[in-house]
Specification:
The structure holds 2 protein chains of 2 kinds. Chain A is mostly helical. Chain A has one domain (2-276): ABC transporter involved in vitamin B12 uptake, BtuC, CATH 1.10.3470. Chain A contains 11 helices and 2 strands; from the N terminus they run ααααββααααααα. In chain A, strands 1-2 form a two-stranded antiparallel sheet. Chain B is α/β, with parallel strands linked by helices. Chain B has 2 domains: 23-147 and 287-363, Rossmann fold (3-Layer(aba) Sandwich); 150-252, 3-Layer(aba) Sandwich (Rossmann fold), CATH 3.40.50.2300. In chain B, 45% of the residues lie in helices and 19% in strands. In chain B, the strands form 4 sheets. Chain B has a 6-stranded mixed β-sheet, with helices on both faces. Chain B has a 4-stranded parallel β-sheet with strand order 8-7-9-10, with helices on both faces. A 3-stranded antiparallel β-sheet of chain B has the order 11-14-15, covered by helices on one side. Chain B is globular, with a radius of gyration of 23 Å. Classes of the chains: A mainly alpha, B alpha/beta. The interface between A and B is large, with 40 and 31 residues.
């Protein structure tokens, strides 16, 4: 039974990280209809900047996380300004190619600066909490808590602030939003900034129990795409639930069946859900 | 003088310099390996060893073969760990650069190149200890690392004696780890041991090992078999310790103790683990010069990837001299055994003492164990007795 709860904790940890990455991805898709493949690179760059701030400048972990979030938010805004905005009106395929180009570019730049080596980002929270026979490393509990706090924060921002409402309005009807005077380019920039910051925070939360290296975003972005398709493209609750579904499927699959099959289980579940609900768990985009 | 004149002068000076260099012949040492993506570090480490050896040989005036002096040009192409791209790269290295030897640091790439290397006439410098690459009689393959059959028995003996008879299999699911597992399993059960759990994990692709490790530990093993690249292997070990595992580890030779200690913050979590001795800690005399030069040049300790490839290129270069040819791959291959046997120890930090008839390098290796927080050498023949 203890093992069962261990896997729940692990599923929550993985699911939280996946959800945060998927949230940023789905926000951009919902508003701009861009499949932003470079999102995985933003995740990776976030981890590297935190590693730089914490390792080379001696900034504490949480400060490094905030710094990385700001840098990656700016980077995401710059990518919107320099890459995606000039492509507005072009076929979606062009956005996709540009996004993949950006992904490769960022990976190459990071590898040129920091090399291909694996790096470790140390967290100050290395305690291991023993709770009712459960072994829970503090960092994992922290990931879950921080991720849920961020999701709640995002929800409040979108529902309770004017800025958030303009984002939702844009997602629902771009032209309508423009007609009532919403500044589309400002909304785009804010959305990219939020999405970049979410990716950076997810990376910095997860990095202490993993490794920092140039290709670290590749697998995460693949999973994030599966998650937003699963949850419904553009849907925020879909991204969170989809992230949890994949996280739990991996965790339980790896424990009860075999690590060899855990991706098969996650993707089989994906196929199953898609065949029952072809437009995802929460179709219809941002509400 | 105006800009144009300066430009002309610079051009003339450039021509003079290149003219001086042209008096020397060049021979290309080909390399195809992962230089980007997840395995980029591994590819770069192997390439560093080749490049260092080539730089030293060139600085010493090059190779004297058949009355001419040859400088070695290492040309490295990225194959992203893909066998098909390795094959394309090798074809290009052969056709465009006329490389007599192509180094490849992965088994898939080696097997792909073996389909045509005898026909195209180039030697493969195979950096993989997968025994299969030298088992089907390719006449132009040099397998650089030792085959791992030799590790399996002593590893099992040492761990079984210290920790107990129950083994949990938590190695990688890549081909190399599977080949290891296929040998370690029978060696363990053959010595009256018992395999209590078996759950290979994807060391290269997984983001998290929590579930995988807890599944292996559910069988209450005394010893865990682990192994993949150093850094993820360290994470697996860390995970096992965090989940309360107090036994020992059999560490596959792909993972290195010094690199794992960097991730783990020291040797303590590795207590009782047995594996191969890191090159920089090798207790045998003779390698100090190489290690010191490497530290000075790169600011870190050399790993076995760099060391083995460094030795290998020195051996291949010596074989070219002995064969009197930088182009005839067959003649070079024929002289490899002799060349490695005569290689001075300062050019051979990896201790390659010869080459078997099938193409595997003969290497004497040292086993290492973490004992009371320290890395100690153990004799493979007396291990566990």
């Amino acid at each position: 039974m203890v093992m069962f709860f261990q896997q729940i904790l692990n599923g929550l940890t993985l699911g939280s990280v996946y959800s945060l990455v998927a949230l940023g991805l789905t926000l951009i898709y919902g508003i701009l209809h861009i499949p932003n493949f470079s999102h995985g690179a933003l995740y990776m760059v976030g981890a590297y900047f935190a590693y730089f701030f914490a390792g080379s400048l001696g900034v504490p972990y949480w400060g490094a996380m905030a710094g990385a979030a700001v840098v990656v938010a700016l980077l995401a805004v710059a990518s919107e300004r320099l890459v995606f905005r000039p492509l507005r009106g072009a076929p979606v395929l062009h956005d996709m190619i540009a996004a993949i180009g950006l992904l490769l570019f960022l990976e190459a730049v990071v590898q040129a600066i920091w090399g291909a080596d694996f790096h470790r980002l140390q967290s100050p929270h290395t305690q291991i909490v023993h709770l009712f026979g459960l072994v829970a490393p503090a960092q994992r509990l922290l990931i879950v808590a921080a991720a849920f706090a961020l999701m709640l924060g995002l929800h409040l921002f979108l529902q309770r602030t004017v800025m958030g409402s303009t984002i939702i309005a844009m997602a629902q009807d771009r032209e309508g939003a423009a007609l009532v005077g919403i500044d589309a380019s400002r909304v785009s920039m804010v959305t990219f900034a939020i999405s970049g910051a979410l990716a950076a925070v997810a990376a910095v939360l997860f990095a202490p129990i993993s490794l920092v290296y140039p290709a670290m975003g590749d697998l995460v972005i693949l999973k994030a795409f599966v998650i937003i398709i699963l949850g419904g493209m553009g849907s925020l609750p879909g991204a969170i639930l989809g992230g949890m579904v994949i996280g739990f499927a991996e965790s339980f699959g790896a424990f009860y069946i075999s690590t060899n099959y855990k991706d098969i289980i996650a993707f089989a579940l994906f196929v199953l859900i898609m065949s029952v609900r072809p437009s995802g768990l929460f179709p219809g985009g941002v509400r | 003088m105006n800009g144009k004149t300066w430009g002309a002068l610079a051009l003339a000076a450039g021509l003079l310099v290149s003219g001086a260099v042209r008096a020397q012949e060049h021979v290309t040492i080909g390399f195809t390996g992962p230089l980007s993506g997840g395995a980029a570090l591994y590819g770069k480490n192997t390439l560093t060893g080749l490049q260092d050896a080539a730089d030293e040989i060139n600085a010493a005036g090059g190779l004297a073969v058949g009355g001419a002096k040859y400088l070695l040009d290492v040309v490295a192409l990225d194959d992203k760990y893909s066998p098909s791209e390795a094959a394309v790269n090798a074809k290009r290295l052969r056709a465009q650069y006329k490389a007599p030897v192509v180094f490849v640091p992965h088994a898939g790439g080696v097997l792909a190149l073996q389909a045509f290397n005898e026909q195209d006439g180039f030697l493969i410098g195979a950096y993989t200890s997968t025994p299969a690459v030298t088992e089907h009689g390719n006449g132009l393959t040099l397998r650089i690392p030792p085959s791992f059959d030799g590790y399996v028995q002593p590893f099992s003996r040492v761990e079984m004696k210290r920790f107990g008879k129950k083994l949990g299999m938590a190695g990688g699911d890549h081909d190399y780890a599977k080949a290891w597992a296929a040998l370690i399993g029978p060696a363990w059960t053959g010595a009256d041991g018992q395999i209590v759990s078996d759950n290979p994990m994807s060391y290269n692709k997984d983001t998290d090992f929590y579930s995988g490790v807890s599944r292996v530990l559910a069988g209450n093993p005394n010893v865990l078999f682990v192994g993949g690249a150093s850094e993820p292997t360290a994470l697996v070990i860390k995970q096992a310790r965090e989940l309360g595992f107090e036994g020992g580890f059999i560490v596959m030779d792909q993972a290195k103790f010094d690199e794992m200690a960097k991730v783990l913050g020291g040797f303590e979590p590795l207590e009782g683990a047995v594996g191969v001795m890191p090159l920089a800690n090798d207790p045998r005399p003779g390698g100090e010069g190489y290690i010191a030069a490497f530290r000075k040049k790169h600011g870190q300790d050399p790993g076995s990837e760099a060391g083995l490839n460094y030795s290998a290129l020195y051996g291949v270069a010596a074989a070219m001299v002995a064969a009197g040819s930088v182009t005839d791959a067959k003649a070079i291959r024929a002289k490899l055994d002799e060349a490695f046997a005569k290689l001075p120890i300062e050019h051979d930090p990896a201790r390659i003492i010869g080459v078997e008839a099938k193409g595997g390098a003969k290497i004497t290796f040292v086993l290492a164990m973490i004992d009371h927080g320290k890395l100690v050498a153990i004799d493979p023949d007396k291990a566990g007795e």
